[in-house]
Structure formats: structure tokens, C-alpha cells
Amino acid sequence: MQNELYQKIRANPKFQAFMKTRNAYSYLMTILGAIAYYGFILLVAYDKELLAQKIGGGTTSMGVPIGLGVIAFTVLITWIYVRRANSEFDDTNAEIIKEAQK
After folding, report:
1. At what angle do helices 90-100 and 2-11 cross, to 10 degrees?
2. For residues 8 and 48, what is the distance between their CA atoms, to the nearest angstrom?
3. What span, in angstroms and rounded, lies between the C-alpha atoms of 61 and 9?
4. Is the pLDDT of residue 75 over 70?
């Protein structure tokens, strides 16, 4: 019974489109996060002068807000992904399973 259900789901064109969309979205979010983190590391490695510049005459350097920006950006893209996964992706998944159980 489980194998039959599995085969129905895999054969459903909606499932194949769903997997393509979900995987592309996951890859996009992963690439955006990697660019943010690796971009910051490359700045640390190759442009220390930019990160060492003091802001507003105080003791804080440019590296602090840029680093916080990287963290905030990755939290934001994680929130965007989870919001879409918990609504659109979950709804589509439930619909595909329901269709296969008929």
C-alpha cells in the first residue's frame, strides 16, 4: 500500500513541478546566504582597511554594522523561506498527498 501511494505521488505532474519549484527556491536562498557570509569573509581577508574605518568619531568600526547586517540578512531570508514553506509549500504538499490517496 505504501509503495503504491509513493508511486502515485512520484508520477503526479504537480509533485514534479512542486519539487522543481521548492528545490530552485531552496538553492536560491542557500546561494544568497553563502554570498553574504563568504562576501563578508572576503572583505575581512582583502579589504581590512574598509572594515577598520571608524564610524562617527567613535570606537566602532565599519566591520561591526556590516557583520550585523550579514546576520540580519540571513535571518531575513530564513524567515522568508520558512514563511513560504509553511504556507505555499505545505499546502501544495497536502494537496498532492490528498490526490494520491483517492
Report:
1. 120
2. 56
3. 54
4. yes
- The residue type of 63 is G
Instruction: List the grid coordinates of 78.
Output: 530564513
In the prediction, which pLDDT does 101 show? 85
pLDDT of residue 1: 66
Q: What is the DSSP letter of 55?
A: S
Measured CA to CA in angstroms, residue 70 lies from 8, 27, 34, 90 at distances of: 43, 18, 10, 28
The identity of residue 53, as a single letter, is: Q
Domains of the chain, residue spans? 19-100
Q: Which residue has the cell 503526479?
A: 12
Residue 99 Cα distances to 26, 38, 86, 95, angstroms: 25, 43, 20, 6
Nearest to 32 by CA among 79, 93, 65, 92: 79
Q: What is the pLDDT of residues 12-32, one digit of tens each?
A: 899 999 999 999 999 999 999
